[in-house]
Amino acid sequence: MIQARDFEQAHEELGAHAADGGRDGDYYKCCAKIAALEENYEYAIELYEQSIHAGGSGTQRFLVYADVIRLLYLAGRESDAQQFIDSALEDLERVVRRPVFTAQSLVNLSKFVIRLGLAELYVEILTTKWCWNPWQKKLKVAKQALSKHRETFTKLSALQANRGYTLGSLKSPSALRVGSVDVVVYWPMGYLSLLLRDFEGVYDLFNSILCYLEQKNVRFVLKNQYLLNRCPDLDGLKVLSWHTCGCVAGVRHLKESPFSGFFYFDRTGYSGWAAITALTDEQINATLTKISDLEAEDYFQALVTRFITARKSKYDQVGQVCVPLPIRYVFIPMQLLDDHVTKLTDWDIFHLISEVLRLLEGTDVSLVVKRHPKCSHWRVDALLAEMAAHPRVLLVDAPIHDLIESSSAVCTVNSGVGAEALLMCKPVFTASLTDYGFLAHDIRSVQSSPEFIALTEVEVDRVKYAKFMTYYCRDYLVDGADPVAIEQHVDLWLNAAC
Q: 157 in helix, strand or coil?
């Protein structure tokens, strides 16, 4: 219920839980999650602290430590956050010295260490600690995932050790003073999770950046990124920050892009916050004229082969089977309701679907909708149940590329699927600023059904598409597997005045 954001029903079930068994650690933890989702950060912190106390000496507290740290930062309590970090790390050091564990204790400890990004300690917990019940399912799954990526974790452990990223380095640091270091690199909170999820290119990206900084004798320090979407401001220092936005001198924002293996390396953020969105069409066109037609077509076709032909997308499409589709349809890939990029516009997915249905009235064009694979929101449940009865709406869970390929157009608020559709030369409509907006139509300015249908039927300019996507992927984004391109981006950043 909490994941589905049905807070009223969740509170009812929590009340019943409390009546039956009292207010235990799980009760307070669930209440804290609701308060955090409602952005009542101080109350959420209080509830998480009650959860920790109610849990006693068990290791369940390690499951909430990272959430408390994040909330303290969100509440603007930076000094309290660092004190809490120090206390949590001392607790972790004490507990890992125990000679014997339960399997669940090892799972709980490993989840906190994942959030800290400490590869060597993660390996130690899952491979060298003795436990009573090693056959426990969750522990076996964790060990199997680590075994699959053991080589990467071994390399990462050495990389972190050589650069001083250890449990001790996460404790209260002395103030970072201009002159003591030149660069701060924020290690993504949950970085190890990205590796365990086979997140393409992320290890190579960071490894190339750090190796190049060393090669140039740049003095840098690694810090853990406890908070996403909040731009760090370390006056006078160059900073690499993960999954953040904001225009601060010296800061560059890193984040995965709509294309697996490619990353943002941007001055102001990602998606609609990216610096590319501030460029006028004239400025982009001036850049595209420097790319020859042949050069663009070769690179564009390589992108098509890499992503479309290979059916590679951000989310795994394995197990999904395409279903019979309408002859003519517009495709809407749904987004998570709490996706941070939805803050860029006052249009949500409900408004978009309603508007597209209005624009399709009186036509022979249907609407195909795919739910986001990670969405379980009750409001989406209700919407889909309502649309299931609509004669011109088809709800599917089919591979994303098949749905794009057969469509007349793709409509999205500001999803990265819109960028994927550009590789198939489809008309794309958005309801927000996007970093690929140069090739997209703004559906908010479409007034009538005939105008909308006409835009879906216009033959796109393949040369224009090819040139922009070449500029976007090759020159603007950075390929995690291309160390030369990464070094070029690093050089531009280090030499920039802002």
A: helix
Residue 261 backbone zone (phi > 0: left; psi -120 to 50: alpha; other: beta): left
3-class DSSP assignment, residue 225? strand
pLDDT for position 57: 67
Which token pair is 149?
A: 């990526």
Phi, psi of 432 (to 5 degrees): -165, 165
The span from the CA of 365 to the CA of 388, in Å, is 17
Radius of gyration of the chain (CA): 24
Distance CA(431)–CA(435), nearest Å, equals 13
- Alpha carbon distances (Å) from 327 to 230, 361, 398, 427: 45, 16, 16, 17
Tell me which of 15-19, 142-146, 300-304 is least confident.
15-19
Cα 382 to chain centroid distance, Å, stands at 26
440, two tokens: 């997209």
Give the DSSP H/E element, type plus range, for residue 214: helix 202-215
Write phi, then psi, for 306 (nearest 5 degrees): -70, -35
Alpha helices in 231-319 (DSSP H): 281-288, 293-303
367 — phi, psi (to 5°)? -120, 125
CA gap 154, 124 in Å, rounded: 11
Within 10 Å of residue 363's Cβ, how many Cβ atoms? 15
- What's the residue count for the chain? 498
Looking at the DSSP bridge assignments, the partners of residue 431 are: none
412-450 per-position pLDDT tens digit: 999 999 999 999 999 999 999 999 999 999 999 999 999
| CATH for the stretch 291-476 | 3.40.50.2000
Whole-prediction pTM value? Answer: 0.90
| CATH domain 1-97 topology | 1.25.40
How far, in whole angstroms, is CA 214 from its chain's centroid?
Answer: 28
Q: Sheet containing 409-411: which strands, arranged edge to edge?
A: 393-396, 366-370, 329-333, 409-411, 428-430, 441-442
Query: Please, are residues 335 and 262 in contact by the beta-carbon 8 Å criterion?
Result: no
Q: Structural domain boundaries of the chain? A: 1-97, 178-281+478-495, 291-476
Place of tokens 């009865």: 389
Residue-wise pLDDT tens digits, 305-324? 999 999 888 777 665 666 78
